[in-house]
């Protein structure tokens, strides 16, 4: 600084100049003290640039010349006579520190340009095509613009260009130079001369430690040459010295290898980034000498790749990971951070790191493969800590979907380079299959817990307090089918997002677990809800409807897993059948005593028993209306058949015989009661329409005034009920009061003739009614018959 000031005072004539800047500077004296100092610094700065240019190897090339526009002869006088105005950012008389900083920055950039230009080939340093010269000239112009250097012609003009614009332009030039540098790293290069006499082992070791890899390696090669030549020139007594040299070489190469590994593991640090190219040249040279004695036996390129993987592993392990007990979302958070680290690191490799290597290293590919391998190993360790279903799903989703997605390996910032790379995680064989199996097992456990909670909730909300079931569309139904269906639907939809093949496996696992649910539910229901509870019947109807609904909705998975759906439906049907049997048995028990007293003397004169029967059947009809259609019809049909068997069956027991023309009253009563019962079962939509005729057919036989007319009313009952036989007709005639006689025999013969006719064979033989009725023969009325007359009552008849 003091030298620059002295220079300024020694040449006052050069420093004195006048210029207008809002009238703030007018006297030569003030200019010589303030402006002169600044101008002196500027000239010193120019000289330093020119000095750096002269020192550059480019200046020694024939015809090479670095000039600034302001130094041309046409502008020389103007430049000498016109000192620069003060920086726009500083007021007159302000310290010139910013100028000093700019000077230092430009000096550093000039030195950097010098270092960059050093490895250029002569063809690229030609003054006509040299990018370095053009860049230097642009930089000189940029410096002059940033310092607002003007000539006498421009002293009255106010500069309108801001420093920020100059800085942007300068940054663009720096980027152009950086691109030029990236293109200049090539695989081919000339190895500098190997020293004739290598440095000592300690000195070489020091060079390695301080990062002077090129010089250290050249001396290593020199030491290696001595080692090759020594066996030929040394006597037999120097074997110890030879072994020592070999040991020294191994130690030095080991140190060099470790240094390379350290650089690769942290390549973007300021210190290591400058050493990458030197390191790459060392690796290239050692690969050429891989088979030669004196060096390391394994491949340096392989060691470099292992170091890349080691660096990747450090990156992966540095990602924050909470303990399971600290954060329930520990895995989701960790995988999110891991994906971000992978993208950021590969972006750095793509944008910066790979330009520090020769192309043959395929740096980006190596790092991608490194992440594929290291992340796969890391995921295996994470999987051992996973216990929750959501974490198994998150792990599978990250492996199958997210790793290759635009969030990570498919990121737009990694295009187009990543398109040519394999982004498949290098997982161990069967690892993904094992994770999927664990996911399905954990899902089954989750579904089992859901079923347990459903039963507990049903007990708390319904059974415990004896609350009436809720209704949906006038049908009592529980909410548990929705809970289970929602859970299964969620599992299946999530599995489809993971993998199309996972859907079948998940559906199969769900159905396998659900197969146990009906039996478990029935046990809990039987334990908590006894038959003495007022809502015993309503509860059973509710669960018949609930499981019917669950069964129906699970049919949507039949195409995916037919066997699983069939197995589940079989278990549901078993429970529904049991619940319906409970209702049937209850009804049968309720009406048993009333049905036994049908077709008796009391029945003929008293309607009390039938009224009770009708009342119970009507209540059954109301219950049936609460049942969903498929089960309601089946339930009504079964009980319809039971009532018919028991009601008509009382005629077959020969408990009463109508006398004194009471048969007409009995026939009328049977017809009336039968129609009332039939109307109830018709309302219940019973499927047994074929049973509606039997009451009228038998009433016609019983109600005939003349016994001779009975023969004409046999055909309808035989057509509708082919299993109506002689023993059944005998029982009906006994109830009518026709016990014996010639007309009795004629009626039986007519029945035999009708059954032999072919038109009877066309009837539905599957509709069995009278065969299931027990016939009781009254022995008193048959005591006068010969033995041959009883042959028709034998089983074969």
From TrEMBL:
Cellular component, GO, one term: exocyst
Family indicated by similarity: Belongs to the SEC6 family.
Higher taxonomy: Eukaryota, Metazoa, Chordata, Craniata, Vertebrata
GO biological process, one term: exocytosis
Bias kind Polar residues: ranges: 50-76, 120-136
Protein name as annotated: Exocyst complex component Sec6
Region (Disordered): 1-138
Basic and acidic residues bias: start-end ranges: 7-18
Pfam families: Sec6
Biased composition (Basic residues): 40-49
Molecular function per GO: SNARE binding
Low complexity: compositionally biased ranges: 89-98
């Amino acid at each position: 600084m003091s030298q620059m000031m002295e220079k300024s005072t020694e040449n006052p004539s050069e420093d004195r100049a006048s210029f207008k800047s809002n009238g703030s500077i007018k006297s030569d004296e003030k200019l010589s003290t303030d402006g002169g100092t600044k101008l002196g610094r500027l000239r010193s700065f120019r000289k330093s640039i020119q000095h750096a240019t002269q020192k550059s190897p480019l200046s020694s090339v024939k015809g090479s010349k670095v000039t600034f526009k302001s130094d041309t002869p046409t502008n020389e006088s103007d430049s000498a006579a016109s000192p620069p105005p003060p920086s726009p950012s500083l007021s007159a008389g302000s310290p010139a520190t910013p100028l000093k900083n700019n000077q230092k920055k430009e000096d550093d950039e000039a030195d950097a340009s010098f270092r960059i230009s050093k490895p250029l080939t002569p063809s690229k340093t030609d003054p006509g095509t040299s990018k370095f010269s053009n860049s230097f000239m642009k930089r000189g112009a940029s410096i002059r613009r940033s310092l607002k250097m003007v000539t006498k012609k421009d002293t009255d003009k106010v500069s309108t260009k801001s420093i920020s614009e100059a800085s942007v332009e300068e940054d663009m030039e720096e980027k152009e130079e950086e691109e030029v540098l990236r293109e200049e790293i090539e695989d081919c290069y000339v190895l500098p001369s190997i020293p004739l006499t290598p440095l000592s082992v300690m000195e070489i070791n020091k060079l390695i430690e301080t990062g002077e890899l090129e010089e250290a390696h050249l001396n290593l090669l020199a030491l290696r040459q001595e080692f090759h030549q020594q066996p030929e020139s040394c006597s037999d007594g120097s074997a110890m010295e030879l072994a020592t040299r070999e040991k020294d070489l191994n130690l030095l190469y080991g140190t060099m290898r470790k240094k390379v590994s350290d650089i690769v593991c942290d390549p973007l640090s300021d210190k290591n980034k400058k050493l990458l190219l030197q390191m790459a040249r060392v690796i290239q040279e050692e690969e050429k000498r891989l088979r030669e004695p004196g060096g390391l036996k394994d491949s340096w390129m392989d060691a470099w790749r292992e170091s890349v993987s080691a660096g990747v592993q450090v990156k992966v392990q540095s990602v924050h990971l909470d303990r399971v007990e600290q954060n329930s979302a520990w895995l989701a958070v960790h995988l999110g951070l891991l994906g971000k680290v992978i993208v950021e690191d590969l972006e750095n490799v793509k944008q910066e790191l790979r330009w520090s290597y020769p192309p043959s290293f395929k740096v980006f590919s190596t790092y991608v493969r490194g992440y594929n391998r290291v992340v796969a190993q890391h995921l295996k360790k994470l999987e051992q800590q996973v216990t929750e279903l959501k974490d198994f799903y998150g792990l599978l989703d990250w492996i199958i979907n997210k790793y290759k997605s635009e969030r990570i390996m498919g990121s737009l910032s990694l295009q187009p380079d990543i398109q040519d790379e394999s982004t498949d995680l290098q997982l161990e064989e069967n690892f993904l299959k094992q994770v999927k199996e664990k996911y399905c097992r954990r899902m089954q456990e989750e579904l089992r817990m859901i079923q347990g909670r459903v039963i507990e909730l049903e007990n708390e909300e319904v059974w415990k307090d004896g609350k009436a079931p809720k209704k949906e569309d006038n049908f009592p139904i529980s909410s548990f089918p929705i809970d289970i269906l929602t859970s299964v639907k969620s599992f299946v939809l999530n599995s489809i997002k993971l993998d199309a093949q996972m859907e079948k496996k998940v559906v199969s696992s769900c159905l396998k677990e659900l197969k146990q649910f009906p039996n478990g539910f029935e046990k809990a229901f039987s334990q908590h809800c006894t038959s003495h509870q007022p809502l015993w019947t309503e509860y059973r109807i509710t669960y018949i409807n609930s499981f019917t609904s669950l069964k129906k909705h699970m049919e949507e998975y039949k195409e995916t897993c037919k066997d699983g759906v069939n197995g589940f439906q079989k278990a549901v049907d078993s429970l529904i059948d049991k619940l319906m049997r409970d209702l049937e048995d209850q009804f049968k028990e309720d009406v048993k005593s009333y049905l036994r007293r049908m077709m008796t003397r009391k029945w003929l004169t008293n309607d009390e028993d039938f009224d009770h029967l009708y009342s119970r059947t009507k209540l059954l009809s109301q219950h049936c209306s609460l049942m969903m259609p498929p089960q309601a019809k089946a339930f009504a049909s079964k009980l319809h058949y039971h009532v018919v068997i028991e009601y008509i069956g009382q005629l077959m027991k020969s408990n009463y015989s109508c006398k004194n023309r009471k048969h007409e009253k009995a026939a009328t009563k049977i017809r009336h009661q039968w129609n009332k019962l039939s109307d109830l079962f018709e309302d219940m939509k019973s499927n047994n329409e074929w049973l509606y005729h039997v009451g009228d057919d038998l009433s016609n036989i019983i109600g005939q005034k003349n016994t001779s007319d009975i023969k004409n009313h046999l055909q309808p009952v035989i057509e509708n009920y082919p299993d109506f036989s002689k023993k059944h007709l005998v029982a009906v005639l006994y109830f009518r009061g026709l016990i014996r006689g010639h007309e009795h025999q004629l009626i039986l013969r007519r029945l035999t003739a009708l059954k032999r006719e072919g038109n009877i064979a066309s009837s539905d033989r599957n509709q069995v009614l009278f065969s299931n009725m027990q016939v009781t023969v009254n022995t008193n009325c048959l005591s006068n018959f010969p033995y041959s007359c009883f042959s028709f009552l034998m089983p074969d008849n």
